[in-house]
Amino acid sequence: MLVYDKPIDQAGPAAPPAPQRMLAGISVLELVRLLWRNKVAIASAGLICAVAAVMIGKSLTPKYSAIAQLYVDPRELQLVERELTPRAQDVNGLAMLVESQARLITSNSVLLQVIKDTKLDKDPEFGGGDAKGALATLLGLFGIGIGPAADAKLGQMAALEALNRHINVKKTDRTFIVDIDVWSYDPVKAAMLANAISNAYLAESKKSQATAARRATSDLSGRLKELQERLRTAENALATYKAQNNFVGTQDTLISDQQLSASNQRLAAARALTLDAQAKYDQIEASRRASADAGAIPEALQSPTIANLRSQYAEVRKRYAELTSELGPRHPSLRQMEKQVEDLRRNINEEVDRFVQSAKNDLTRAREYEASLNKALEAQKRQSVQMSQASVRLRELERDVEASRDVYQSFLKRSRETEEQESLNTSSARIIGEATVPQRRTFPPAMSMIAMIGFMMGALAASAWTVAADRLAPDTTEPQPARAEIKTPTPPSKPATSNQPRQTAPAPVASVEKPLIARLQESDVVRTLGGILSLGGVPDAARMGWPTLRAGSPQTAFLDAIRTIRGIAARRSPADAIPVLAVIGTGAGEDRSIAALNIALAAARDGVSVLLIDADHAMHAMSNRVNGLGKSEPSRLGWLSIGTKASRAIKTANGISILPIVKGSDAKTGDAIRKAIAQARSAGGYDLVILDGPAMPFSAAGRKLFDIADGLVAVLPVSHDINDAMEDIITALGGAERKLTGVVLSEIHPAAVSRQRDKQYA
Known about the structure:
This protein is of the alpha/beta class. It has helices at residues 28-37, 39-59, 91-105, 108-118, 130-141, 148-166, 187-244, 255-289, 298-302, 304-326, 332-421, 447-472, 557-572, 591-605, 621-626, 666-683, 700-708, 722-733; strands at residues 2-4, 64-71, 167-171, 177-184, 430-433, 484-486, 516-520, 525-526, 533-535, 538-540, 548-549, 580-585, 610-614, 650-651, 656-659, 688-692, 711-717, 740-746. It contains 18 helices and 18 strands. The chain has an eight-stranded mixed sheet with strand order 7-18-17-12-16-13-15-14, with helices on both faces. A four-stranded antiparallel sheet has the order 3-4-2-5. β14 (650-651) and β15 form a beta hairpin. The chain is flat, with a radius of gyration of 58 Å. Keywords: Cell membrane, Coiled coil, Membrane, Transmembrane, Transmembrane helix. Pfam families: GNVR, Wzz.
């Protein structure tokens, strides 16, 4: 029998119970019974309070409320191009404008106009009439007299204060609708005041626009004469400066700039002519130095004189060749013909020399023309530099004139616009619902409602008094210490045969050693964000996004308890075999997986090499966290896998290797886990194997894992009743309950539950 005589977190004897029952809880059934026993007294108190409430309601003076609705659109009418005030376009700006207009409705200027129009200073309800006369009489007793003007002012201030208390301006959310709610003891007066306030607000809005336009026109007109004189002075200064510095030209450019541009163009043309003459002269000289035909240059070919001489030369050469073949070298005719050939050649050369001299003269003239243009251009450049220096001041004067002109024109145009706006009403506010005479009062409410409220208040007060009196009464019963027992399930008895009588034997109770209790508290863990993070290429199991043990001193109660549980599992394991610890639990979600990871981190902190295997076929929360992250273990143990797929153990930076699960049938996954444990035991390299699961309810494949487990650790959330949870676990374990070596009470993410008086919680 597994017995929990006292709470888990209480080491000493239980404190004696309080002497009064008020410290104990009370069930809903007991509360209902208590109230039912005193139903007559509760009903009587309710009826008495209902009658009293009706009597009080009858004695109250009724109030009537009238509501007038205004549409206050901040987007005013666009009657002219520009308005005096900018218009807000964003939603926040529009809402602020509407709220400002709602406050304007209750301003003194609007309410004083309403008082003047409706003569409220004479109304006794608003401090006028007899009330004002009584005040004047009271002041007269002390010898203080007030004049008629002061008396009227005093009446207006009293009426203004009273009217402020009678008005409630409400703005409907996300609309431009403003409700003006006015109450009065007279329904007709309430409707009249609501409509008067609406009309006064519209008149005040129009008046304020006209006043603003008139003030703007006056201010602008007063500045126009000064701006006009400033513009005239700036223009005179500009004209004088232009005349002094010879700034003459078109609107776009000066004459000096035009002359400089024309000189640049002429100089460029002269340079082109010089280059052309130089090229022609160089070509003729090159032809003469090459001893080529002097008449072969382009100018010679185009000359008719040279063409005629060359024709004669060719004819004489032909004749000379004929005579040479007929006559001897000393024949007079041949000598005469030879002299003609020489004369024609000399004439051609003389004509070519004239072309050379002409080209040289052209080159000289082009160079002299270019030099004269270059000299004139330098003079114009110096003049242009001087003009540029003077134009700095010119541009400054021009900017001054332009700025003065723009300001003057802007003021002149705006003055004319504001002058016309005085007679325009650009406000788009209007009355969309006039106040009507209310037919029902707003206070007090209906007598039936008052009676119901009085009855409920009286009944609640009587009920509270009854419960308080019952709980404050001394309790004469002796409190009994709570004792919860957890029994192992009893096997069903065999049915009696016809020859044997049926006997009821007592159910055998198995004695189970109470497991060690370990608390996983919020102060033991630290929470991280996101998924698993890598440090230098190696995943860190303490950064999976789950609550994990804090890095610090290893001397904590949870770490000590895990060391003891690990030692018990090691003693139960076979010799020279790696102990296997299975983590089970009844908690939903990731509670068990978080506890399993922290148990592995606690062992790794003591220098133990841990292999953490996901054995939860249903949820596989651990695998969902680590699948696809990190790298497979590169050592000789990296072949560890589950199933036929390449799901290898992931080695982390914390001394833990995590072996994810592969989706498949429950039996196939269980066989693969047992095979992985056998491989780890045969290969070595690990000091402890922790199974995350199997999950409850245990399947046949999950129960087979208990055969190879040396110890079982149950994870219980503190929100569960410990006795009920342990009973469920022991019942589900069947014959494997003797392997239960520890219980982890997890305070991580406790679920909100309704605790019962007869249950023991961790």
